[in-house]
Please model this.
Amino acid sequence: MNSTNLSWKFIIFLLFLLIPVLSCQQPKLPAENVSENTPLESGFEIPQGTEIKREQTYDDIISCGPGLVDYRANCGRPEMHGPDYIKEAEVTFSGCEFTPSVRYRDHIETKAGQVRYNIFFMDVLDKSLQGWVARKTALLHYSIKLARTVPDIQVKYVGGLFKQIGPYTQDHIMIEISPQVKPGEYMLYFLLDDNGQNCGELPCVIHVIE
Model:
């Protein structure tokens, strides 16, 4: 009788030891169960889109002259710039190959139901690269991805005739703000991808006004 009780106690003791081990071996959730608002290490590929026709406005992407493409408000000499001039942030990533630098809009003010554009100007600062052809070749390593999505704000890539002019590369991003979006600030997070390696995030505030 005593031996039977000891056996049961031993079995229960073993079960207590096995429970933590088994819990650590639970299968991981499939990728489709990851929330779309969860930042991913590799980011989301930005889908291709088509530019939407609209009335002429300050952030149209236009040719400003030979080898120069920019927002309409930023074309021309600095003394010609008006109140709609678009200020941009510049971020340098020292941890990735060729030391890439990105200039882009990190704050966009807009009304709901509108379309805004964001140009990501990418260059490399590696002094060992000689000539713009070498810099352009190095830039083939890099691409802009989306690290986090926001409901009712659609982000699409709109490549064009002017995507790669001069020694730097431009990625033209179209941001569609649904008419349903309420006033407030919404955070988009882009990232610079280096052949599958995340160089770092590029935050962008979408400030929706009345």
